[in-house]
Amino acid sequence: MSEGSQKDITIIGGGIIGCSAAYYLTRHPSYSPETHRVTLLEASTSSSGGRTKDSISDPATLADPNTKWKRNPAHDGIAGGASGKAGGLLALWAFPSNIVPLSFGLHEELAKEHDGERRWGYRRCYASQVECRARLPPGFSSDESKITAADAETAPSKGLHKDHKTAIKALKKIGAPEDLDWLDTEQALVAYEGMGTPNNTAQVHPELFTRSMAQLAEEKGVKIVTGARVTAINYSKGGDSVESVTYEKEGNCETLPTTDCVVAAGPWTSRLLPNVPVTASRAHSVVIQTPTPVSAYALFTSIALPSGFPTPTPEKARGSKAAQGPLKRSQVVEPEIYARPDGTAYACGPTDQTVKLPLTNAEVEVDEARCDDIISQVGGISDELGRDGKVLAKQACYLPQGGPWIGPVGNTRGLTVAAGHTCWGIQNAPGTGKLLSEIVFDGAAKSARLGGCDPSRAL
Asked: Which residues form the FAD dependent oxidoreductase domain (predicted)?
């Protein structure tokens, strides 16, 4: 492609994948703001969807209330879904292996270039798997003297990164490192095993990272339009190329001429591209402010809850926990916990499919009972996360699953998808964005092989 060729590039989706695509399109050697128009369309006008009303509204203020990277009101809606409510774990041991090394390295480059340590909480960290036995919350009692082996092997609710965990029986029966002092290692810890070190594991604050990618892309010429819900991708008469994108904004229908369309709509992708197998499941999480900053660990837990502990919300339940009562026998749960450098810890629970995917992320429904489950479970193994902590946010999002799919869709010229990134979306976003920029400007991915991410394998 000649550098002077006119391109009208439309990105659908203001999550981390869409924002990373916008960033890397503007960093491609062929990009010129004079000949290449890049527009990012995000359906929502609010980043508070999927959070309770008493949740913190701007996480940037936690580390520095006067930061120049406070939320841009014009960008409300950016990172409003899973990209703003994820854990933010990065790892060379993530999947798919064909794009992970590229993306992990790009994360470090971005942090060095744009002060990511201060701007979006980038740091190297440890990842560990722990087997624990929860203490009963105040006001609850148990008839059991100990948990049976049969009970301990039961795990009805799985963590998001379950594919990376070691079987409980294979865990090393050793103590935790000394700096993991915010975990009750004397009463709660049963077994510990390291999974990742600062050599191969890192983290970011996903909402701040996504917002930064959007801002940096905008500074290079990308136009960001929020409240623009795409209703159709329009093709030529023969269907062999993209011609425009139609979207609704403030009750009006508008059409945007488009030569290249990148669909990065997360779990909403299949509504525009029904043949691309992207599915959705809801995930709840909480953010807890700890008395003092806790050491840099991501914990993949297996917690045995004793009888008498508050019963976790059943997968298909909806609404109040009032009818649940205490457990009659022990149960194993697997919340994940991520310590952050801003003095908070993030914890998430299992997914559910109780409530269907709404029209936009602004309408995501939070089941507070599921958030309360997470709070009581992590509080059962850590006073910093329980008795001495302060809950800052209760939230939910829809996790895009089924992929990731990255690349051209069928034989339609100018149509590209980047969606279905599972729980590794934040990790793989920079690599995805760079590959998309190469597909749009060079006609093919160059920095990594698409391999199993190629949509042609699913269509």
From this structure: 8-47, 75-438
Element housing 374 (H / E): helix 368-379
**Two tokens at 356?**
């269907």
Give pLDDT tens digits for 186-206. Answer: 889 999 999 999 999 999 999
Q: For residue 281, what is the DSSP state?
A: E
SS3 394: strand
Helix (H) or strand (E) holding 368: helix 368-379
Tokens for 314, please give them. Answer: 């059943």
Query: What residue type is assigned to position 287 of the chain?
Result: V
354, 380, 399 - which closes a domain: 399
Q: Are 344 and 320 in contact (CB under 8 A)?
A: no
Q: How many residues does the chain have?
A: 459
DSSP assignments along 99-139, one per residue: THHHHHHHHHHHHHHHTHHHHS--EE-EEEEEEEEPPPPTT
Average per-residue pLDDT in the chain? Answer: 90
Please determine, for residue 114, whether its predicted confidence score (pLDDT) is greater than 80. Answer: yes
Cβ neighbors of 267 (< 8 A, separation 6 or more) are 81, 82, 278, 279, 280, 357, 398, 399, 400, 401
Burial string for 89-113 (b: 16+ CB within 10 Å, else e) reads bbbbebbbebbbebbbebbeebbee
Q: d(Cα 216, Cα 250) in Å, to the nearest integer?
A: 26
Task: Kindly write down the DSSP assignment for every residue of 186-203, as one continuous string.
Answer: TTTEEEEEEEE-TTTEEE
Final residue in a domain of this structure, among 368, 399, 430:
399
Q: For 406-432, give the secondary structure using H, E and C.
A: EEECCCCECEEEEECCHHHHHHHHHHH
The CATH number of whichever domain residue 328 belongs to comes to 3.30.9
- What pLDDT, in 10s, does the model give residues 355-387? 999 999 999 999 999 999 999 999 999 999 999
In Å, how far are 28, 60, 287, 305 from 208, measured between CA atoms? 23, 7, 14, 34
The label of the residue with tokens 């391999």 reads 451
pLDDT of 68 above 60:
no
Determine the structural domain holding residue 361 and report its residue range: 126-197+280-399
Res 425 pLDDT > 70: yes
Helices (H), 188-273: 206-219, 269-272
- For 19-73, give the DSSP string: HHHHHHHTTSTT--TTTEEEEEEES-S-S-TTB-TTS-S-THHHH-TT-TT---G
Tokens of 167: 């079987």
Decide if 262 contacts 440 (C-beta within 8 A).
Answer: yes
Dist CA 292 CA 275 (whole Å): 49
Answer yes or no: do 50 and 105 share one domain.
yes
Q: The domain that contains 49 carries what CATH number? A: 3.50.50.60
